Amino acid sequence: MTTLTLPEEFVLLLQKDNGSYHSMSDYAGAAELGELVLQRRIDFVQKKIQVLDASPSGVGWLDDCMAYLVKKAGPANKPVAAQSFIQRRKNARKVHCAALAERGLMRHEEKSALFIPYAKYFPDPGTRQALIAELRAVARDEIELDNRRALLAAMVHSTNLVRTLGLERAERKRLKEISKGEQLGKAVEAAVAAATAAISAGAFAVASSAGVSSS
């Protein structure tokens, strides 16, 4: 499967075959935090975001995220609440859908309703199903859990997207454990384990305030 960023994987799972998307789309910012951790741009201190590297990347969404975090952190580089970042980035889904469309992993159509234009994105079925199969294999302990898989599993659970993917109860239970940073194995770095729990908590807090539960 083509290498994807965490937010790209998340929005692939968000999008439905008919071009609409699941209601968890407001939490794409949590997946962006996961990617920033993987790229060692941020770390977590007591479940808050600590900026490590704000140098320009040339990637629009990433530089926008870092600019916001640097501004919030201020000259003293104070830790930033994950919940506030996720809420700030609640419209990030479209950015990553557009990136996937450019790579041929989503089909983009412009529509209109009552003369108001809007975009629809249709996910590549093979890529989306391969991603779901990977998550199921993680949940069944059939493949080794690594940094990326741990963060994606945490995202899928904490936003309750797991409920839309057809996973069995035991599989959902394992993803819940991962989202809490439990039994991650030796391949997951300590910093990523801490980030997994922190990002999950931030996404869950946003979801709870919006009336979405996770179990």
Task: Describe the structure in your own words.
With 215 residues, this protein is an alpha+beta fold. Helices cover 51% and strands 12% of the residues. The protein has nine helices and five strands, in the order H-H-E-E-H-E-H-H-E-E-H-H-H-H. It has helices spanning 6-14, 28-38, 60-73, 82-88, 93-102, 125-139, 147-158, 169-179, 190-209, and strands at residues 42-45, 48-51, 80-81, 106-113, 116-123. Strand 1 and strand 2 form a beta hairpin. It is globular and about 50 Å long. The mean pLDDT is 89.
If strands are numbered along the chain, what order do they take across the biggest sheet? 1-2-3
Shape: globular
Oligomeric state of the chains present here: single chain
With helices defined by DSSP (H or I, 4 residues minimum), what is the helix count?
9
Q: How far do the termini sit from each other?
A: 30 Å
Listing every helix as H and every strand as E from the N terminus to the C terminus, the arrangement reads HHEEHEHHEEHHHH
Roughly what fraction of the amino acids lie in strands? 5-15%
Helix amount: 40-55%
**Number of beta-strand segments:** 5
| Radius of gyration from the alpha-carbon trace, in angstroms | 17 Å
Mean pLDDT: 89
What ranges have pLDDT less than 50 throughout 5 or more consecutive residues?
A: none
Structural class: alpha+beta
Q: What is the makeup of the main sheet?
A: 3 strands, antiparallel
